[in-house]
Amino acid sequence: SSTPINDVSKPNNPSVSITDDDSDLDLASLRDPNNILSKRSIYFDYDKDVVKAEYKDLVAAHAKYVSSHPKARMTLTGNTDDRGSREYNVSLGQRRSVSVKKAMNILGAQDAQIETVSFGEEKADTSCKNDACYAKDRRVDISYEKE
Length: 147
Known about the structure:
Elements: H1 27-31, E1 41-43, H2 56-68, E2 74-79, H3 86-106, E3 114-120, H4 131-137, E4 139-144
Parallel strand pairs: 2-3
Antiparallel strand pairs: 1-4, 2-4
Helix pairs in contact: 2-3
């Protein structure tokens, strides 16, 4: 018996499949509270946009995640406290998010995987006017598109 060269009754199973599903994103690791990837905020000193040494491991972990998951897309959202003008704070928030993005790019994350935005002081806790509250507002938050 001969086997047809192109049997259309059998599905074609290519060794490499290109899909639009998210099965390769490993979303469980992003949600696991025991995993560093569940930590999503990088805090900054007053009027600064330099990533502090204590957040280098967190930045590196997220950079490694996106570099090893090419379909992953993240948004880095810069925030500030409500001191300073609105325009200045939007600019500062953007500088903070870009600072985190540059650090991640150096560690292998691709430009196209990371969007940077700034809320400036829009999400600041204006009901609290002390250093502890201000410190919570000076941050970049990490979020993932498919999460």
